[in-house]
Write a structure and sequence with these properties.
Length: 165
Amino acid sequence: MSVTIRAATLADREAIVALHKAAAVTPGALARAPEEVTPAYVEGAIGSDVCLVAVEADGFVCGEIHAKRETVALFAHVLGSLTVAVHPERQGRGIGSKLFEALIAWAKAAQPPILRLELAAGAGNPGAIRLYERLGFKHEGRQVARGRLPDGRFEDDILMGMLLL
């Protein structure tokens, strides 16, 4: 399957909403529940410092990643608030890896330089954690009972970071 990674535009808004809603159906896959994925949320993502989409040859948006640079001067070298979504029917095909590779390349070329990437992964999502580890992210901490799933159970967040030095 051929996938192109490119910058997202407002023309992608509805496709990204549909993508995030599909991914959010699985509890713990995304922080937001399907009803929390709105056009306004996606417009904010597109307006982030970086927002990339994975697009199949037929135009289907099968993945998206976005992140923001920290605004406090001490942390201005950090890209965080990272969210990635891959359509459930397209997972396991390397799309998440391609999105992260493009994000890392973007971060390395950014001016002023971005030297650190940060993310949090739900402890109940071992596939995502394995992906982040393969990409070079390191475990840096754990936030106990950070998330509360729809069934009332709590889930820890695994804090992960990557230095681009």
